[in-house]
Structures are given as C-alpha cells and as structure tokens.
Amino acid sequence: MDKRHELIHDMELLFRTVFRQLRHEIHAVLNAELSPNEFMTLRMLKDLGPQKVTDISKRLNVSASHITAVTDLLISKEFVERKRSEQDRRIVEIVLTEAGKEVFERVEQKKQDYFFDRFQHFTDEEIKIIITLFEKINRTKQ
C-alpha cells in the first residue's frame, strides 16, 4: 500500500472512532430528556415554524412514518401538537408548544455546554482549522 492509501486508511479509521465517540457522548447528553430524532424535530420546528410531517421527513431525510412516530412521542410529552393549517384546513401541521420550546432550549444549552467543554483545550486557530477541513469535506457545500 502506498503512503497516500495508508494515510487515507488511517484517516478513515480515526473518523469512524471519533464520530462514534461524539455520537455516543451527544446521545448521552440529549437522551436524558430527548432522543436525537426528537431533538432534531424540535429544532426544525423552532427554526422554521409549523411543518407538515412530509416536510419534516424530507428535510431530515427519514421516512414520513418515522416522523409520525417521533411526533406521536413528542405529542405524548406535550412538546408539540397537531393543528390544522390556517391557510388550508385540509393540511395538518406539527406545531411546537411552549413546553417544547423550553425543553429544546434547555437541551440545546446542554449540547452547547458539552461542545464547549469537549473543545476547551483547542485554540481558536485549531477550531478554525477543523471548520475549514470539514467545509472542504462537506459535499453539500460544493
């Protein structure tokens, strides 16, 4: 194996380890109150306002039935509710409740605290380098 192949192989193994580690740690931070899917759904509703299940599923790249199950859980926790659209009464939208906003803000703060703590030993310059490298890797920015 030539040097470049070896480097890419080492990078791939390290990516897998680091992402698994981060996913596990973030899951632990979120899971006290919300699953990652519940959190992402609440984030979308907070950022974009009321949404149809199909719009949420497309944006999060999961099936509509999965989002229906997630929203059913969020409804049972009183974090969201289903409402008829003001513009078209045939359309049912998922709407963030006040309790949903509060839990989202609380968990978002925990997540931010986690990342601040996780990267506290990195200099600003190192964080900028990581951002630059991830932007270069990110195919959606091309």
TrEMBL record:
Gene3D superfamilies: Winged helix-like DNA-binding domain superfamily/Winged helix DNA-binding domain (1.10.10.10). InterPro entries: HTH_MarR-typ, MarR/SlyA-like, WH-like_DNA-bd_sf, WH_DNA-bd_sf. Residues 4-139 form the HTH marR-type domain. GO terms for molecular function: DNA binding. Keywords: DNA-binding. It comes from the Bacteria. The keyword DNA-binding applies. SMART domains: HTH_MARR (SM00347). This is DNA-binding MarR family transcriptional regulator.
